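Morning run. Coffee first, then this:
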Amino acid sequence: MDTLSQDFWLALRRLRKSPGFTLIAVLTLALGMGANSAIFSVVDTVLLRPLPMPEAERLVHVYSVSRGKNGDTSVLDFRDMREKSRSFKELAASDSTDLSLTGAGGEPERLQGTTVSAEFFQVLGTSPLVGRTFLPGEDAPGHSRVVVLGHALWQRRFGGDPAVLGRSVEVDGVPYTVVGVMRPGFDFPSRSQLWIPVTWEGDLIAPFNRGAHWLEVYGRLAPGVTVEQAQAELVALARELEAQYPQTNTGCGAAVVALQKDLVGEVEPALLLLLGAVGLVLLIACANLSNLLLARAVSREGEISVRLALGATPGRIVRQLLVESLVLALIGGAAGLLVASWSLDVLVALGPKDIPRLEQVTINGKVLVFSAGLSLFTALLFGLFPALQAARAELGHSLREVGRSSTGVRHRARNVLVVSETALAVVLLVAAGLLLKSFMRLQQVDPGFRSEHVLTMDLSLPQREAYASSASRVNFYDSLLERVRSLPGVQAVAATYHLPLAGRNMSTSMWDMSRPKPTPEQRQYAQVRIITPGFFEVLRIPLKRGRLLTSQDGEQGQWSVVISEEAARRYWPGEDPLGRTVRLGMNFGNGDMGGQVVGVVGNVRHQGIAKEPLPEVYVLHPQGSPNDMSLVVRTGGEPLALAPSVRAEMRALDKNLPVAHVRTLENILGDAVAQPRFLMVLVGTFAGLALVLAAMGLYGVVTFAVSQRTRELGIRMALGADARSVLRLVIGQYLQLTAMGVALGLVLAFVASRLLAGLLYSVQAADPWAYAGVTVLLVGVALVASFLPAYRATRIDPVIALRHD
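And here it is:
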């Protein structure tokens, strides 16, 4: 132990005597290890850390499956699942939605909330910090209304006062009694801030609404039951329901997914890609340091030979050199933690909103252990081979001869390291190039609307008597739109039930009344968009055929609808849909929805920029008259500057009306590509760092090689070689190494790019332009990195070179 301590202090003294080498080594390691620690922190929090619920591995998300896609469940199907399945200890249902909070001593507020069945918290196994959660039966019709608050909302709105229990607040205009406050960090699902029991009555449980799928179902597996067994039981139950209710359940199946996997499924490939990318950066950094240590070993051959001659064993020499590497790695790891801490703030700020628990990422004990293990691993990775080579110094060499040239083994090792780090840089650069091209293709996709100068905001009419009737809701929105339309700077205004790209959709069956009624197998589906007149003009969605909807539609009892080009192409191929009458398989309590097709408009990518547009049908607000609507306001200037004036008009009609999600349509469009942009920026940053490290490594190797070959180059020049031939000789040798590294890297990139295929849009993983671009870039960088030391070689005075030791 004393000997190891001596080696440690000796290593510190030696490194202090070489400040330039030490600084470069520590910075290289800090960048490589810091990036790894930062990304590991994200991966650990998002992918590896168990959900903060008891026996979280038994929690599952239950889906209804239709046309091969997982989706929500209807109320009646959920009831059948709960009553007939035996694979679950309990099932619960929820529906995430915006809820208005008033009467709590502050301004009216629109919050992310969730309506849940009474068993919801019991299924999750979570307990409140204060008070209680819901009791059995509190979701039954006629039961007293109760609400559970999220911890952050309790702190912000109620000052963390425990006396909030029993207090009355208004949720969507209806009085609720606060019965509990959840623990810090619990916001499941969808970052909820409050929870209320869902009540199923009236049309929600009518037989015709068995096909209305809007519930998310969660379950806790019974002891000894696997996910596969639970799914098999529900699939069998789905077949029973299909036979019993063919009009609504034909083609419907079921899927059971572990909750942890369900929450991270979409982001897992991207995070694993980032972890792989930073791993490559660290390998390149280690290759660089190995080259530095090999060069440093040459300058220390005399010292090591003397120590061997005085009786030091090769093992002791290797250990001392490894201790130096370990000291470097520990200092680099400590500096890397500072880099990681700073990087996490940037990652959280840049990260897309759909990465779960990203805001909870911190440098915790697990990350510290990971960093410590990474330090030991990197010390061995970059330090072991140079140490073994240094310990093989030949005792027979005179002290004057040992520094003249490195051995052939070391020369070959340096070349291998250059080839390796070049190949790894190519892999990262190809990945970055593919992601960049994919993102550029996404940016070029026409979303189907014009987003510039459009203000949006969500509002919801409370469930109170003033808005109980369809007519009252229609009158409110008509009045509001008229008032906003008169504001200076407003060019056009409308309202819609679902904004484009906002992640909310409503699908239903659609029947052409001029054709025979379709069987369940022949049923056609479309996305329903409830709008007010002027919507197409605000978003500048182009009219392809016919006309747009106006306020006169429906006045004579005959409703009109507009369909998208995709609906016309899919359901009326080679026919003219104008004049056809369609009926939709849903209603909002106002009778059957549908009407005569009067126009065809361009496709809008409501589901996502990277997703193909679905058939859509647009109906006017009075047909559905939902409480929730979103305003879209086209302005002549900066949209957000008009937001206070629009809010004032709302408050003039109802002072207790909260507004949520005030943003521009350009912000929504930007959020739609946030994840690919995040991935592109990070992989591009790591690829850039890899390129710099590879260039530094090549520069260092060429510089060292020139210094070692000073005598040889001097002889060549003394024998008549001109500067150009020496320049060509030096650059040519290292361009060969670069070419080998690029060739190897292209092969590795081609293999690795298969893993990228699912993250690319309209770009092939084997895109030739990406590979060609990286090849040109690496060759160019190699020319620049090797030119300066090669040029210095041409300035060698042959006389001085011949005297060089």
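Confidence is low (pLDDT under 50) at residues 395-406. Good start to the day.
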